[in-house]
Design brief:
The complex is a heterodimer of chains A (576) and B (618). Chain A is an alpha/beta fold and 576 residues long. Chain A folds into 3 domains: 2-91, Roll (Ubiquitin-like (UB roll)), CATH 3.10.20.740; 128-206, Alpha-Beta Plaits (2-Layer Sandwich), CATH 3.30.70; 217-563, 3-Layer(aba) Sandwich (Fe-only Hydrogenase (Larger Subunit), Chain L, domain 3). Chain A is built from 18 helices and 17 strands. In chain A, strand 7 (164-167) and strand 8 (174-177) form a beta hairpin. Chain B has 618 residues and is an alpha/beta fold. Chain B folds into 4 domains: 42-132, NADH-ubiquinone oxidoreductase 51kDa subunit, iron-sulphur binding domain (de novo design (two linked rop proteins), Up-down Bundle); 145-223 and 548-609, Fumarate Reductase Iron-sulfur Protein, Chain B, domain 2; 234-328 and 478-539, FAD/NAD(P)-binding domain (3-Layer(bba) Sandwich), CATH 3.50.50.60; 331-476, FAD/NAD(P)-binding domain. Helices cover 39% and strands 15% of the residues of chain B. Chain B contains 23 helices and 21 strands. Chain B has a 6-stranded mixed β-sheet with strand order 3-2-1-4-19-18, with helices on one face. In chain B, strands 6-14-7-8-9 form a 5-stranded parallel β-sheet. In chain B, a hairpin with a 2-residue loop joins strand 18 (502-503) and strand 19 (506-511). The radius of gyration of chain B is 28 Å and the shape is globular. The chains are: A alpha/beta (576), B alpha/beta (618). At the A-B interface, strand 7 of A face loops of B. Residues 188-190, 238-244, 261-264, 269-271, 274-275, 304-306, 324-326, 328, 350, 373-374, 377, 513-515, 519-523, 525 of chain B line the site of flavin-adenine dinucleotide.
Chain lengths: 576, 618
């Protein structure tokens, strides 16, 4: 243990503890900006500087370990003024037109500048602009970047891709794509993790709210919106309501207020996904085990990743479309027929926790229903907040309402799609039923839950050992795939989610600086599963109806045309 | 201090330096430190722009090209850096710089313009990249200057921290992760790591080699780590010098089987048969070699590849082969009388000493020809062999010698004469035996194409230096003809490889060390052995990682005021020149602690915290 004093208070902490953490133990807060625990402890912004009595120069609290006997002053004149000066310097290179920034009110720089009582910047404003591909789901504004390097480290250490690089040297040092390339031409998975870890508005999703407003205001368009599982665990964070109040039914009501004609649940197609993917898996397991492992296919971040990093494994990816794309295809075929609407007049919007979904809906071959894109626009959870604000929807005062029918029913198995391990658990529940003929106990596959980046389990399904693995986060994914390739591990069925913790921690979710919320949101989803009336995808009555009325059976010919896709030919690049 | 009084009455006054000038002079000195320890990998255009800005501040302002032109050049370069330029801008920069060079009235202007002209020629690609891609080609490549500058990339701040805590054995283990010759390098490494040490920005580089000396001196015997599971692959290594032994060590740790073929009776190469024992005692060399051999290499001594067996046979019997034969034949002066008895080569002299057959130079006049470190070793060895007088003859000035300055000073202190600006003309002999070396005095002058000042004959007559022994130390060359015959490409006698030690057309054969680079240094040979081991491992289809399980202490705050560098103490010159005992003393504990505390821990502070600071395995 190390003994020291912070602002005169005696503190005793373990060796190796940072001054920042030590201060927290006695209720002293030191402002930080670039710091992200374990991911970015680089000491770039110098905002957390504190004075150590007797030392001439200040030290950064975030990455300086405590030392025996030191006397730390976090708010001495010297420390406070230096901290203020550094924030002013950062501001001199930051375009603080906060009024038009998506992160206004949720910006770490804004907070720290306000907290330090900065009202004017004594330096000349020096902003740099850079060209960007504004069609890509991930947008970067150079003039807002404060060079904290969080994105560099998140993409490198967590996602194992290293898309963001430190460019240039000297005063022109900045962050960007190697060689100044277009982001669309490199291996970015579009997962959006860099966005949710950016402290300011330098990284954000492509804003598609205006497109949706236009569709809503077009009397000819029939607007259909789907709400992804993980959205319901997070959407309320941006409003003044508790987690308990922020139910999906309240969101449904808000959407209705916003003017959507039909409000449906992606859970419906999540259940459909289980039927298709589960069948595909069982067919392979029993008839062609040599073709295993089978990878899940519902995460477009992961699909982008395997295509750029491990194209040689592409044949192992399930051909089943993601729930979002299935939904679009079903809406513009089965549902359009049902309500007698020309699918060309239907405008399909999704609310997703995800930026990669924006890319997914634009994949040229995702147009199976009528030739138009099956899903027209994807709004992230963050954009839906903005859409509701545009229409002045009073969210706290809006009472709950039901989803529309018939694509509005989902089971507990579908809800947990939003958490890492959820797809696997849902699939196993139904696979077990198909093989054994009766439902498994509800907690039979609980081992695949939790935030661990790489999980594995083996289940006995009527004498067949089924070896499953789950990875979330692309860094973990890379490790898993390398081990599979080298033959160090062998699995039959593998679930991959690009975002750590799965879509609950998705790159399109609300941002709370410095907090990883995938855990609580995931808990929330498992809670919803616990209280759901239906817990098995194969028991979803509307799914069964859609098979009876339209698709006949899982993996039927019709199902193949609408519910499956060819990863090798996506209309962008051929992989075989 | 001169007080300016009655100025009007004085016809002449003494110039007094103004206070501002005095301070500026000091600042220039501090700035010199910064220039010397210049971090590498920076945007070269940005750097040159800053130079030109300083040049502009130095302008007296009288003439147009310098006063206005330099400023315009700065603006134009700024446009390039801000990606606001076109290729037309680069042309304008070139043209303007040329005209400033041609027309400025004094060197303040035209020497500045020369910088720009060289920059445009030298970093054309960087200009293009800024203009067309909007980014710089460069990135901050050496967050930890010492580690990047060390050819083997030894974790220097890591082991300095360990030495600071008295954990000497751990320090040795950490060094061995990248370099299995800690004891050797502690004594004779040319320490390129110190050149750019960031501490140099504050006062002077950390004495890194001396700290390694402390570690290896006090660590005792440190066993080598365990080898990985046997792979069954066999690698032949031709040459048992530092390159070959390093490759053997790492390949053994990776689980491969290695066999060294060495033509001499003992291992070590030039470490044993070149470097004299007063600089590198046999015990130190042997302790490193013992640790290396403990990992399981089999050694064939007195086996000369090409005579006792052919390269083809060896290659056929192994899964991969590493050629590390060094540079062992002598360059000749090519002057009249060179064949006389008493003329010998550096390699022959030092090899004899290495074999324990020390010639007796008692009472003799010895003349050594050359200006490199090998020449210094011959010079200083000759004194120790009892020579009456030792003269080192060199064509250029002392500051042009490639030998380390401390070696030259050491030789002088030991009573040797450094005869500079003398070019050997012929050897005079009587009855076949050398009597003198005739030299032509030189005058130093303009710079040659390589940027070195070139000597030429001075308008004075030849001189004669009496000599019983002449040692020719003007470089070694490589005996690689047999590999050339086998089909490998040779360049000026050395084996051509890529940066990974691979040889075109021979995918199972690698080469490195002096035989690929020409005579260089031990640490470069070690780096080649390490690189070859990694690439041989990959070639054999593996991906073994070399790591070290030593935990480093938590980095302590570095907030130290300027503090001078400590140098190792040497034995008094008059005593040390009489024997072959070591002449440098390792630091005391007090010295070691202080020197360790000077390290700025660039692995943890600065860019190292963001990228490239800690590399735990390779
Ligand atoms: C006098 C002198 C002083 C030096 N001082 C320093 C110094 O202070 N610091 C420093 O860093 N460096 C110094 N060097 C340079 C350093 O010793 C060499 O750069 C280094 O030893 C090169 O290593 P190597 O393994 O490539 O070759 P070598 O050390 O030359 O080893 C090659 C080995 O291959 C063997 N061999 C050659 N041909 C065959 C064959 N056909 N069959 C079998 N075996 C063969 C040789 O006998 C030798 O043992 C010095 C060199 C000399 C000559
Ligand atoms: S979106 Fe994901 S993959 Fe792309 S740069 Fe950001 S973190 Fe990296
Ligand atoms: S883009 Fe955002 S996360 Fe990346 S360096 Fe700039 S401010 Fe930081
Ligand atoms: S894990 Fe979910 S949120 Fe993240 S990229 Fe995949 S689908 Fe999108
Ligand atoms: S200060 Fe220390 S870490 Fe930095 S270059 Fe010098 S020796 Fe290396």
């Amino acid at each position: 243990m190390v003994n020291l004093k912070i602002n005169g208070k005696a503190v005793c902490v373990n060796e190796g503890t940072s001054i920042l953490e030590a201060a927290k133990t006695v209720g002293i807060n030191i402002p930080t900006l670039c710091f992200l625990k374990d991911i970015n402890e680089v000491g770039a912004c110098r905002v957390c500087v504190v004075e150590i009595e007797g030392k001439d120069r200040l030290v950064t609290a975030c990455n300086t370990p405590v030392e025996e006997g030191i006397n730390v002053l976090t708010n001495s004149k010297k420390a406070r003024e230096a901290r203020k000066s550094n924030v002013e310097l950062i501001l001199s290179q930051h375009d603080y037109h906060c009024a038009t920034c998506v992160r206004s009110g949720n910006c770490a720089l804004q907070s720290v500048a306000n907290d330090l009582n900065i009202h004017e910047v004594p330096f000349t404003e020096k902003l740099t602009k850079k060209q960007w591909n504004n069609d890509f789901p991930v947008i970067r504004e150079e003039e807002k970047c404060i060079k904290c390097y969080r994105c560099v480290n998140v993409c490198e250490k967590i996602q194992g891709l290293g898309v963001w690089k430190v460019l240039n040297t000297g005063s022109r040092t900045t962050v960007g794509i190697e060689g100044g390339k277009d982001i669309a031409s490199v291996n970015c998975a579009a997962c959006g993790q860099c966005i949710t870890h950016c402290p300011v508005g330098a990284l954000h999703e492509r804003d598609d709210v205006d497109k949706v407003l236009e569709a809503l205001e077009d009397p000819k368009k029939v607007t259909v919106i789907q709400i992804a599982p993980a959205v319901r665990a997070a959407w309320g964070e941006a409003f003044d309501i508790t987690r308990e109040e922020a139910t999906v039914k309240k969101l449904v009501a808000c959407m209705r207020k916003a003017g959507f004609d039909y409000i449906f649940d992606t859970n419906f197609t999540a259940d459909l996904t289980i039927m298709e993917e589960g069948t595909e898996f069982l067919t392979k397991l029993t008839k062609d085990p040599g073709s295993l492992p089978l990878f899940t296919s519902c995460c477009p971040g992961w699909i982008r990743f395997i295509k750029s990093e491990f194209p040689e494994l592409l044949a192992h990816v399930s051909t089943t479309k993601s729930p979002q794309q299935m939904f679009g295809a079903v809406a513009k075929s089965y549902f359009a027929e049902k309500i007698g609407v020309d699918p060309k007049d239907m405008y399909c919007v999704s609310i997703m926790p995800c930026t990669a979904k924006k890319f997914e809906c634009s994949i040229p071959v995702m147009n199976d229903a009528c030739g138009d894109p099956d899903v027209d626009v994807v709004l992230t959870t963050r954009e839906i907040t903005r859409l509701l604000k545009v229409y002045g929807v009073d969210v706290p005062a809006t009472p709950e309402e039901e989803f529309d029918s018939p694509l509005g029913v989902g089971t507990g198995a579908a809800v947990i799609f939003g958490a890492t391990g959820g797809v696997m658990e849902a699939a196993l529940r139904t696979a077990y039923f198909v093989v054994v003929g009766e439902n498994p106990p509800l907690d039979a596959f609980k081992d695949v839950r939790g935030l661990k980046g790489w999980k594995e389990a083996t289940y006995d399904v009527k004498g067949i050992p089924v070896r499953v693995a789950i990875a979330s986060g692309l860094g973990n994914t890379r490790n898993l795939l390398n081990a599979v390739k080298k033959g160090e591990v062998a699995y039959d069925f593998i679930e991959i989610m690009a975002c750590p913790g799965g879509c609950a921690g998705g790159g399109g979710q609300p941002i709370e600086d410095g907090c990883e919320l995938a855990g609580v949101r995931g808990e929330n989803l498992y809670g919803l599963d616990d209280i759901a009336d239906l817990r098995f995808s194969h028991e979803n009555p509307e799914v069964n109806a859609v098979y009876a009325e339209y698709f006949e059976a899982p993996n039927s010919h019709k199902a193949h045309t609408l519910l499956h896709t060819d990863h090798f030919h996506d209309g962008i690049k051929d992989y075989k | 201090m001169i007080i300016r009084r009655y100025v009007d009455l004085n016809r002449l006054t003494l110039t007094a330096q103004s206070r501002a000038d005095a301070v500026l002079e000091d600042l220039y000195k501090e700035f010199d430190l910064r220039v010397a320890a210049n971090p590498q990998g920076l945007c070269p255009i940005d750097a040159v722009l800053s130079f030109v800005r300083l040049c502009q501040a130095q302008s007296c302002g009288k003439c147009v090209p310098c006063r206005v032109g330099l400023g315009q050049l700065c603006d134009l370069m700024e446009q390039v850096l801000d990606s606001k330029a076109t290729m037309q801008t680069v042309k304008l920069i070139e043209k303007t710089a040329q005209s400033v060079y041609e027309t400025a009235d004094c060197a303040i202007g035209y020497a500045a313009a020369e910088l720009v002209i060289k920059a445009v020629k030298g970093f054309k690609d960087d200009f293009v990249s800024h203009i067309t891609n909007g980014v710089c080609n460069s990135s901050f490549l050496n967050p930890v200057p010492c580690k990047s500058n060390c050819p083997a990339h030894v974790d220097i701040p890591g082991y300095i921290a360990l030495v600071g805590e008295g954990r000497y054995a751990d320090a040795v283990k950490l060094i061995r992760k990248d370099n299995p010759f800690p004891s050797v390098c502690a004594r004779i490494c040319e320490h390129p790591c110190e050149e750019k040490c960031r501490r140099g920005l504050v006062d002077a580089a950390v004495n890194i080699r001396a700290l390694k000396h402390v570690a290896t001196d006090r660590a005792g015997v440190v066993p080598a780590p365990k080898c990985a599971e046997k792979t069954g692959k066999k690698v032949a290594i031709i040459g048992g010098g530092p390159a070959g032994l390093t490759a053997a060590y790492f390949l053994n740790l990776m689980g491969h089987e290695t066999e060294i073929y060495e033509q001499r009776a003992k291992l070590g190469g030039m470490l044993r048969y070149g470097i004299p024992v007063y600089r590198l005692p046999d015990a130190e060399l042997d302790s490193d070699i013992d640790a290396i051999l403990s990992t399981g290499t089999s050694v064939h001594l007195n086996y000369s590849v090409g005579k006792d067996g052919t390269f083809d046979e060896i290659r056929a019997n192994h899964d991969a082969t590493f050629i590390a034969i060094g540079a062992h034949s002598d360059n000749k002066l090519g002057i009249e009388g060179e064949e006389a008895q008493g003329v010998t080569s550096a390699v022959a002299l030092l090899r004899a000493i290495g074999d324990g057959e020390r010639p007796d130079f008692k009472g003799k006049n010895v003349v050594v020809v050359g200006g490199g470190n090998v020449a210094m070793d011959c010079t200083r060895s000759s004194v120790r062999l009892g020579a009456a007088k030792v003269t080192c003859v060199y064509r250029r000035r002392q500051e042009d010698m490639t030998a380390l300055a401390e070696e030259v000073e050491g030789a002088k202190a030991e009573g040797c004469v450094i005869a500079t600006l003398m070019s050997p003309v012929r050897v005079k002999s009587a009855e076949g035996k050398v009597v003198s070396l005739v030299v032509q005095p030189q005058i130093i002058g303009e710079y040659d194409a390589k940027g070195r000042p070139a000597p030429r004959n001075a308008d004075v007559p030849e001189q004669e230096i009496p000599a019983d022994i002449i040692v020719v130390a003007i470089g070694q060359s490589i005996e690689a003809e047999q590999f050339g015959k086998a089909g490998m490409e040779l360049f000026k006698g050395s084996i051509v490889t890529d940066a990974g030690c691979a040889i075109k057309g021979f995918e199972d054969v690698f080469a490195g060390g002096d035989c690929a680079t020409g005579p260089a240094t031990a640490i470069k040979a070690i780096a080649a052995g390490k690189t070859a081991a990694a690439n041989i491992d990959s070639y054999l289809g593996y991906e073994h990682k070399i790591s070290c399980d030593v935990e480093l202490p938590t980095p302590k705050l570095v907030n130290q005021p300027r503090c001078a560098r400590i140098n190792e103490k040497e034995r008094e010159a008059g005593a040390r020149c009489k024997d072959f005992d070591v002449f440098e003393y390792a630091f005391s504990d007090q010295e070691a602690k202080q020197e360790c505390s000077r390290c700025l821990k660039c692995d943890y502070f600065g860019y190292g915290k963001l990228e490239g600071g800690r590399e735990l395995e390779w």
